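Table S4 entry, MFS transporter.
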Amino acid sequence: MSGPSAVDSGSDRAAAEARNRRLWTVAIFLTMACTGAVMQIRGAVLPTLEGYFTVPEWQLGLVAPAGTVGYLLVILAVGSSAGRVDARRFIAGGAFLTAGALLAMGLSPSFPVFLGSLVVQGAAVGVFRALDRPLLSHFYPSQRGRVYNRYDATWAVGAALGPLAVVLALRAGSWRLVYGAVGLALLALAVVFRSLRSPAVESDEEPLTRADLAELIRRPEVLALLAALFFVTGVEGGLFTWLPYYAAAELPDAWAGLTLTVMLAAYIPGRFVCGALTERLGPLTLLVGVLGLLVPAFAFTFFVADGLAVLGGVVAIGLLISGVFPTMMAYATDAVPEHSGPVNALASAVSSVSVGGVPAVMGVVVGGADAATAMRLLAVPVVAALGVIVLARVAEGRRDARAASGSTAVDD
């Protein structure tokens, strides 16, 4: 009798853990969609904030870095300790704090208060983002490329809806409504996280020492990740923040407000396609092709196109650039799966610096020249990112050749 009972008990336990893992995955994906919406709301609401709070353009450029200051510090601290902290407690706490900060942003009486609440919101998101991708890495260790692209596709769904939500909130009477709505959604998800059991994972996160950190950063896969993301996420940050502003001068009013939504909607199929192709072609081979196509798409959109042709170029940019971040993350994490938390933290920190810094620089360019000039300057990091990926692919080929020759020598 004890044999079958033990088997049944083990089977029930495995089924319960699988169900809990699915619930965690769904909650993580939904929260990721909300954070995507929050990020893109910032860019879409800029023109309204300019008039509402009566602030100059250079101060508007502070919105992006304000959102990354706390995020950068928190994600480094929590991400480097991913194997030692209580994920359930930290993620639920980060979601509660994010919800509170968003509600405060919606009630802000002045622009400085809005920026201060944005700093808190960024730090709170950092708690969540430091742990969610590492959890997925250990939930699905054999499918990171596919899962990461789907995870970031849900971010794109929220991001695409964010600017649209701003349009609807303005028609309903106030930009403040959109922050209230997303804040309440995150509050509900925080309650969900609090109610779930602590997640069971299929692989473990190893503690990271200082010596391990230095060795981790020297890994060629991690170096390629950080360099490529520095350039690509800077371009994305510039587009997310200033594309609506640029579109207002290039497109009819009916289209200008939806330009960012259209670009981000293109992220969704782009990431699903990259998730499917990365396992067939290999991440670096795929990204050489993607970035090789992105360069002419970018040149056409901001150097040649005018009128509604700009919209077609923006869709192409969204399709192509969408898969770079998740595919590079999967590539580097596959090389050091036992340190997925620190890899995620380092990549997110570098990305946050670039996402926050590039729009601020562009704000100075916009104030001194115009939005078209600022957009054209983004072609430089696009080309630089392609160069990094090409070098990484060449280096990978050489490492594979050396490994093959070494294996042949041992066999002989």
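The chain has a mean pLDDT of 86.
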